[in-house]
Input
Amino acid sequence: MSFPSELYASRMRQLRPSTIREILKVAAQPEIVSFAGGLPAPELFPVDAVRAAADEVLTRHGREALQYGPSEGFPALREWIAGEMQSRGIQASAADVLVTNGSQQVLDLVAKLLINPGDVVLTENPTYLAAIQAFQALEARFVPVPTDEQGLIPEALPELIKKNRPKFLYTIPNFQNPTGVTLSRERRIALARIAAAHELLILEDDPYGKLRYRGAEIPPVKHWDESGCVLYASTFSKTIAPGLRLGWVAAPREIFSRLLILKQAADLHTSSFDQRVACAFLTANDQSAHLGRIRGAYGERFEVMDAALQKEMPAGYRWTRPEGGMFLWLTGPGELDGLELLERAIKHQVAFVPGRDFFPAEGGNNYLRLNFSNSNPARIREGVRRLGALCRAD
Amino acid sequence: MSFPSELYASRMRQLRPSTIREILKVAAQPEIVSFAGGLPAPELFPVDAVRAAADEVLTRHGREALQYGPSEGFPALREWIAGEMQSRGIQASAADVLVTNGSQQVLDLVAKLLINPGDVVLTENPTYLAAIQAFQALEARFVPVPTDEQGLIPEALPELIKKNRPKFLYTIPNFQNPTGVTLSRERRIALARIAAAHELLILEDDPYGKLRYRGAEIPPVKHWDESGCVLYASTFSKTIAPGLRLGWVAAPREIFSRLLILKQAADLHTSSFDQRVACAFLTANDQSAHLGRIRGAYGERFEVMDAALQKEMPAGYRWTRPEGGMFLWLTGPGELDGLELLERAIKHQVAFVPGRDFFPAEGGNNYLRLNFSNSNPARIREGVRRLGALCRAD
Output
């Protein structure tokens, strides 16, 4: 049977396999220096401590760790997360926390709750690729918010809200993916105020907040949220390990209860085993020492990449200098075609993600996203040397 | 801020917290004999073998097990699953397998791909509660297919298809949840034939297929699918442990590629750690011996419950006698109100799920679903004694 043609709804048509994804499969070969993936450094994973945690969980609570669990999440982990959020300046209790499969699932659940085909989502421009995909799966329409080197510009919002009646604003205030840009304190305060005044719901995605390697910490937008219009999402993917697929959202009560039903419908609950292993790891190990090692390594890698880019890149290229996170954002000359450059770069054994796909609307051909967390300093220098040679040859 | 009223779309209104769910939270107390949950027997979980598998995975492949992985799933696990499906009579290769967070996520992804608000899904009547929830989250409309003690009646389909133009048919052919009924071989053949002739997509959900404790195995509907109109879903929740949240779907190529994009948008991928632990467990341990123990225990528990019901229940009650799985389905007198009975039953320290919520349309007040996998024989006898006393007092 050919697949019934009537089933090819707009949703099916939209879901085309990505060209870049196919190209980047090649980038997994070891001889290629890849700045493409958004991967943490695996040599910093706390493998031994996780093994000890898994052993303890299965020895002491094996049956519970392998049984179905509550859709909300493992209670002790929700408690830990609430404490963690409090330390970030957020008033939240365990009852506000829904544990998810990475913070990616938060994007999916929120989209499923709020988006009907054609509904508007406000985003930074560019924004996180997989957020675009998650919202697109529900046929959202994207309206970009003007941004500069301090993040999105809150003053632009009232007009956009009036014109587009958006369902929510999606923002990554810390070391944004893909640009590395951080939303300033003043703008966070303004954003919370404007959102409250216009009843705008904000989905604040904060996967990288704990990865600040220089500069002073700024509280999340949620810290200034007095009216319950901010959903705060974060993850253990960058602080423990992404393979466990553990994230969370803290949401106002009325939204929480609906997200919980959608979570149950989506997959009943997140792995009981992974939740308990993470919880055992978190309580048995010094997190600030562990995070200090990650921040130290990522800070060094950023400096190495920044210095190498200064040495290797020709005139006409500039890039962001993030204070944390895993990415920097490179702007090339206006005529640069990032996808075409990637095809040539792979032949020269270096890879990155062309910027185009991070723009929900048009434009963006002359941008590249470079990841610096997943390569050691020597590989970073070599990769930037290869990239620089290609760009200079243009 | 009160949550913006314009956001209370039909989806928000539909997502009401369930009364039964709240009542059943009480049933978790140890003094209550609960036939309510769909829980496997935790004393049969292979805890030691899973601990050995976790230890091996973290010792030998720690970094890979904790890193991001492919959205399709861990390759070696997909291979194992393909072999497993072949042993069930399905022609499938690893490339057809998408690993998911339990088979529940298959329901979510398929619904997201195919259902627009108001689209029709054909289901057995009654059908799996969480399937109703997953499809309802996308605002599906349900049309029940007439069923009898051999499952759904394929001959009823052409008329239903013509009238409703359904997006797909959802069926649980083995030891159905909630009824325990098994679709006969003849009907499976007829179903595959009618589906092909009418280009009807079938979602075959087979979580219990390996839990047959008597009678001869019948191949899945997918075995007779020559035209690629059957999606086959199953899970490790009943054969290893549900806490790992591992399931899968085998889908025709054009659907697979779209489900893969939706899986990536939903949560990037299923836990790398859990997938590798399951794979190490599956390859290091004798599955037929392990499954034999589960089948033996569940078969015994069914017999104990059946005998206890015969002894305790008054006239006017009858129930199904499944050849496998975890549930039987009890029909009371027409005037029975299952929800009201549950409220009284909890006071007498026994619990079940009232049948009402398993019916996507109207009716069903006089049914109860009883789980027999999660209580030992002594508890089953005691629970049925309490239930029988209540029913006899009516």
